[in-house]
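Researcher: Going back to the complex we discussed earlier. I've cleaned up the inputs and rechecked each line, so this should be the final set. Can you rerun the prediction on the complete assembly and write out the structure?
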Amino acid sequence: MAYHKITLTVNGEAEQVDVSSNMTLLRMLREKMGKTGTKNGCAAGECGACTVMVDGEPVNSCMMLAIECDGKEIVTVEGLADNGHLAPIQEAIIDSGGVQCGFCTPGILIASQALLDRNPNPSQAEIQEALVGNLCRCTGYVRIIEAVQAAAKMV
Amino acid sequence: MLDPHPSLPEFDYIKPKTLAEASQFLADHAGEARPLLGGTDIFVRMRDGFWKDQYLVDVKGLDGTNEISFDPAKGLTIGAGVSMNRVSAHPDVKVHYAVLAEAVDSVASYQLRSRATIVGNICNASPAGDTIGACILLGGVLNVHGLDGKRQEPLSTFFKGPGSTVLKAGDVVVSIELPLPPKGLQGTYLKLGRNKSSDLSIVGVTAIGYPDADTVSGYRVKVALASVAPTPLVVDKVEEIMAAKPITEDVIAEAAEAAFETASPIDDVRGGAKYRKLMSRNLSKKALTVVWEKLGR
Amino acid sequence: MTTEIKERIPSPIGESKPRLENDQKVTGAAIFADDIQFGNSLLYARIMHSPHPHALIKSIDTSKAEALPGVKAVVTGADFPGYLGLYLQDRHIFCRDRVRYVGDPVLGVAATSEEIAVKALDLIDVEYEVLEPVLNAEEGAKPDAPLIHPDLGNYKVANFIFPQPGTNISNHFKLRKGDVDGAWEKCSTIVERKFWVPHIQHVPIEPHTAIAQWDETGEITLWASSQSPFAQRNLLAQALGVSQSSVRVIAPKIGGGFGCKAGISMEALVVAIASKTNGRPVKLLLTREEEFHTAFVRQELIAYYKMGCDENGKILAMENTYYWGGGASTEYGVNVTRAAGYSCTGPYEVPNVKADSLCVYTNHPVGGAYRGFGMPEMHTGLEQCVDELAYKAGIDPVDIRSINCVKEGCETVTGFKMHPTGLSQCIEETAKAIQWGQKSPASAPNKRRGKGTAIMWKAPAMPPNAGSSAWVELAEDGTVNVGLGGQDLGQGAFTVMAQMAAAALGVPYESVRISSPVDTRYSPYEWQTVASRLTWSMGNAVVAAATDARRQVLDLVSEAWDEDPEDLDIRDGIVVSYKSEQEQPIKDIVVYGLPKPDDQGWLGGPIIGRGKFMPSYVTGLDAETGQGTRSVVHYTTGSQSVEVEVDLDTGCVEVLRGVSAFDVGRAINPALVEAQIEGGFVQGMSSALFEEMIMVDGFMQNPSFVDYRIATTTDAPSDLQSIIVEVPQDDGPWGARGIGEHPMVPTVAAIANAIYDAVGIRMMSPPFSAEKVYLAMLEAGIVE
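Model: Rerun complete. Updated structure for the full complex:
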């Protein structure tokens, strides 16, 4: 199996890394870069726990090859806060009580931030649709949706 | 599928520089190489061990695969590598091909649609493919690059069975063309899943309609069904019935009955054949009513 | 609130403090088991699973796999004769002679990469002799059914579990009260029904993860996504025949449990494999598919109900038979069936009861603890029968519940006097909130609306003497470190414990830390994080430890200041004297002590408070009648009302509104209580509408999120109301009872009752999928 050298930006920092053909973006982040905030929940693009932004668009990082990220900009949950200041969506999900076990939280935060980036004032239905690929077993979703609404008002 | 691979099995990633190179490689490695677009189906099937390809040939970014463009004289061209989200967000798609956008937005989740592509959806040839009905009814034609160069494949004759198409080793679908829509086109995609959204369809119904002076009813109306036959199913009887007499609720019911008769679903884990057949009728009726109302009733 | 009560309930009890670990969880800094870094000595394990529901293992050839470069260990059951099990020791770590379900672990491989481990499994040949499987609990209970555990009579078992050797019945709980046969003729209305509740699964978003290491001295360390580090230490030590002090379990953050990470399952596999890797750590991370195939599942239930009432709606008799499909091992599940036995009537006072709750082995995945521990399954049919009884008797469904529900002082089904409970108030509250009796118009002509109510009870199901312990340590700056052994699964246990410690000690909430992760080498003992028992049981231990620390501080100050301890208090981290009006921050006291009153030397020293709690009053129950003085510690009760809309075109059921009221005794943190109620409601709703492990001939047909659907953002109703009722528990901290599991107990029945109200059909088996509802409406002639 071939290995490839790629360069990319992760949370604003330029990186160079050797990856095998079959290495997913998820595995590269977790195993090669220590970015373990991005979670592996199904490895099949169904649960959303591994959601990261690639060039501003949310993707399931288990469903993208690392090599396909050559030259791209990645943002993970570790990159949401700015110099220790939590992003509005992070503040909002704490305030609303939308965090329980916290395993789906990183993916939910990234998917929510991506939604707010493309639609700063989403309706409840738009929030629900944007997060339909992020499974949460703890919260019942109500407070997560409230958090996105609150974050939209904060920005 | 007791024990799928924990991540992805080993394969080699191939990035050809030209379509010709891609076709040659795929032909040289027939049966062990596959074109890679969004990967959202390929990766799942390779994890499951259902596909065991040695090579994935990334054709994104090759000539024309990454562009989406609308020509007011000719219509829409969607590159094979264009993500569903790009299609759905395209201003001309929203205006001229709204039914396609509606179908696209029903697929899985937003983050999956960042990767998934319409051409991928078509090439997988799943009877459940949500976007296929709209592409067929809108007269879609695929631009294919093969060993012998470029050719076109109309969608109407593209599908041979579940997962099976007319494509041959070495073929790379470069883009799909949708001609200019008929004036006054209206449409809808109704999808029934096990939960409200993000599921695969138990039944999916695409319906379109537009004014047509050559029919008795004054309209040309068509329906395509997903998940009720081995291939995406266009119900020709619906078009005949909806053309032959002025549209009323009874005529719509008759057309829906034709959908019921034509559907030949199977029992699977997502739904039983009996229910699917009944839903082919009920959702066709609903979809036809929506289109009729949009056309001004 | 009067000042008197305020005085009794110190801050921050009753305040919605933010979750302690919020910042870590929103920044990606929170460490879950798979996030721990082990360096390049780490090995990766993969497991070979049985492809047959029931078979004998004839031979295993591992030679080719062992020769594969990168393979460091191949481990089979041959090396591990010990048994595992919480209440009934009926399973080996790896199968030895027999496989009992599709997914049963046959052997394990450790290699330098996952890819090599996968390849190694492909090189191993296992020969099986296929046996006839048992696929249904009721069939499996018959005397001529194929035997799944011929050695049942030899297994070690808890003294309140009653296996029947020579059958597939691993527990038979009998309840006999009053005269059932004589009561039927006094009933003016009788309902008889059969229900089937299929296997479902917990679906934590974090799959089971464990890393094990045996060092050269035989010390075993296990890092696991675990609800039960201490139970795992105990069970592992027993199964491996090693000392408890040689086993160390570390439990980092856990991405949801719901019962499936309680007891022990895959953790034992990786520990066994690590015994052969010369000290190298081994990681096993279940795939989502393995999670479905091989982790604990909820038992299935085939239930027969018969109940009758008089003209006034008073329930006179019940006769219930529960066949629980326990799966291939019932080591944990036997106690689910016991809980369903001693709670068999639901939250009703019924004078005449006959019930049999049978735990039956089947060749299905292993049943275990699942949020609600048998109660959601049992209430699914029971609460529909009560509803039907009301309609048949011409009594309002809410009224029949108010008439018959348990109240303080009444005799429960096992003969114990019911403690104070707010169930009647819960019923009133939910009926009021849902506007019971008023039909609201449907959103479209082809839709029908309906409302439904169901009530519930549930006791912590555990051994009678499950214990908790805690310590409270003060640092030089006056901050407080609380040691405990229970897990924060996301329910907020650590936050609530910090609130209790702050309140009991008299320090600001912000100065309290929880010593985590839980590590059995350093943390105090806790039985398990299950049974909704932490707030109550671990809470009592933490309060005791904090009170002990407080007493030590005040004794010291009393001596140093020469004052009566009764005149001293700790408020906001400052020791104050109400008499002399002296003040001193505890930070100046708790480590270095205080000078003696004559200044000639020092008093005190580092302060560590200790506390424990173990209920001492639960008694045994008669094996033939299920009667006894006190069957359980207490019952949490509650009520749910829902409004649904049924689509006549598709059969789709949409839950529009959910109203819940639960008596939690005292809400230590109301926001966290509400979060449990909301999350539990949606999990219950998901099991009502979508979830089922579709089993065909012992094979699960839908082992992925593609086909095992759970509720998503678009399915959850946005109108969820949580009503907190507080009738204090005499032995709970500030009166608190648990609430973790209860919110999903009545949900399936409430939704079923609402569907009945909407379209007049009774759904006997969840999930109430659009297809099932449509076909039922078709059969009833409601649709064409």
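Model: Worth noting: The interface with chain B takes residues 46, 48-49, 51, 102-103, 114-115, 118, 121, 285, 287, 289-290, 293, 649-650, 652, 654, 689-690, 694, 701-704, 706-707, 709, 711-712, 714-715, 769-771, 774-775, 778 of chain C (CB under 8 Å).
Researcher: Good, that matches what I expected from the previous run.
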